[in-house]
Design brief:
elongated, SIR2/SIRT2 'Small Domain', binds ligand BJW, about 250 residues, 6-stranded parallel sheet, binds zinc ion
Length: about 250
Amino acid sequence: MSSVEGAVRAARRAVVFTGAGISQESGIGTFRGPGGLWERFRPEEVATPEAFAARPELVARWYAERFAAMRAAVPNPGHRAIASWEALFPSLVVVTQNIDRLHQRAGSRDVLELHGTLWVSRCARCRREVATESLPPAEPPPARCDCGGMFRPGVVWFGEALPLDVFARAEAEVAAADLFVAVGTSATVWPAAGLIELAAASGALLVEVNRDETPMSRLAALTRRGAAGEELPRLGEEWGRWRSPS
Ligand code: BJW
Ligand code: ZN
């Protein structure tokens, strides 16, 4: 038996850490790389509080366009494979950088959203939160709150803190994990990327599923270079055989 097989057979606490690459096959654009969202806009032009303050209409239109794409998207075999792994391991937590809620829609029950979600909007003045779907159309956007403030997407922009309670629980789950699977993330945005180092330092078996190499590839005990929607179901089949009591 290989050491990877032994570790997967013995695993009790699994964490799956995901980035934009897992939703690529659902038709949602990634940020970096060819065809990435940020070929059109530089991140600091749209994904910062300063950009929203300076050009609220441009930023609001960009997010409205992306929200429409997310609503129309459906989970792919990669999301569904991860949801099915809840039957394989006593504990399985999904820690995602994605804001699309496709993990939840695929059936994953324990999802930590490190960078918030586009399904919620928040008043930039009084911080009241509302479902993005319930916002009335506004021309020009963004819609305004009763207090007169502008609604902004409930996501984490550059220079903003990650939700403290969510990140603290992610750190605790990762530190306790014996299996850690990083999927479709360039591992370049912090502090999220640091969770991969934390997993390795805490002794978890590290698996990377990505089309390309990343700065964290060298830490992985097992690497699958390919599309998440193909590689994750394949891994699940293999792990299901290893973990069935036969
Ligand atoms: C496939 C595939 C397929 C494709 N199958 N694979 C330490 C060092 C340097 C800088 C910093 C640092 N600590 C903090 C910083 C600053 C900054 C940062 O990280 N900058 C770096 C970019 C240099 N971080 C922050 O500002 C963070 N906040 C912070 O640090 O606050 C401090 C603070 C504390 C207290 C008070 C106040 C402040 C916040 C980061 C927020 C990130 N937000 C975004 C935008 C969200 C909203 C939106 O969507 O518009 O989150 S940025 C963007 O990147 C988004 C993503 O979640 C995030 C990560 O991207 P991801 O998911 O990895 O996607 P890609 O596109 O990069 O990669 C896709 C991968 O998939 C690729 O590898 C492909 O190969 C692969 N792939 N198709 C398999 N089918
Ligand atoms: Zn308000």
